[in-house]
Amino acid sequence: MSKIVPTLAQVYCNFFGHEFKVSKTVTNHIHEYKCVRCRMEMTDTANGFLARLTPKFKETNEYLAQIHKKRRQRNYASVS
C-alpha cells in the first residue's frame, strides 16, 4: 500500500488554518467556498455551519440554485 503524502499547502492549512473564498453563490444565504491554498471545498449547511462539499451537497446546492433562480425570476416579473 502506498501512503498518501500531504502537499505543502495541506500542511500549511492544517497548521495555520484555511483561507476560504466564495467560489459560488447558490442563494442569498448559501455559498460554496474554496481554500485558496489547498483547494478544499466547503459549503454552508442548513444550521449555519460549514461542511465539506460532497457530491450529495453539490447536487443539493444545484437544486436549491434552480429553485432560487425561478423564484427570483417570478418575483421580478410580478414587480415589473
List the helices and strands and how they pair.
Blueprint: H1 8-16, E1 20-25, E2 31-35, E3 41-44, E4 50-52, H2 55-79
Antiparallel strand pairs: 1-2, 2-3, 3-4
Detail the poorly predicted runs.
none
Helical percentage = 40-55%
Lateral arrangement of strands in the main beta sheet: 1-2-3-4
Structural class: alpha+beta
Mean pLDDT: 90
Largest sheet: 4 strands, antiparallel
**Oligomeric state of this protein:** single chain
Number of strands: 4
Gap from first CA to last CA: 63 Å
Number of domains: 1
What fraction of residues sit in β-strands? 15-25%
The helix/strand series, from N terminus to C terminus, equals HEEEEH
Radius of gyration: 17 Å
Question: Number of helical segments?
Answer: 2
Shape: elongated
Notable traits:
alpha+beta; 22% strand; 2 helices; 80 residues; four-stranded antiparallel β-sheet
Question: Would you kindly provide a written description of the structure presented here, covering whatever features stand out?
Answer:
This protein is an alpha+beta fold. The chain has two helices and four strands, in the order αββββα. It has a four-stranded antiparallel beta sheet, with no helix packed on it.
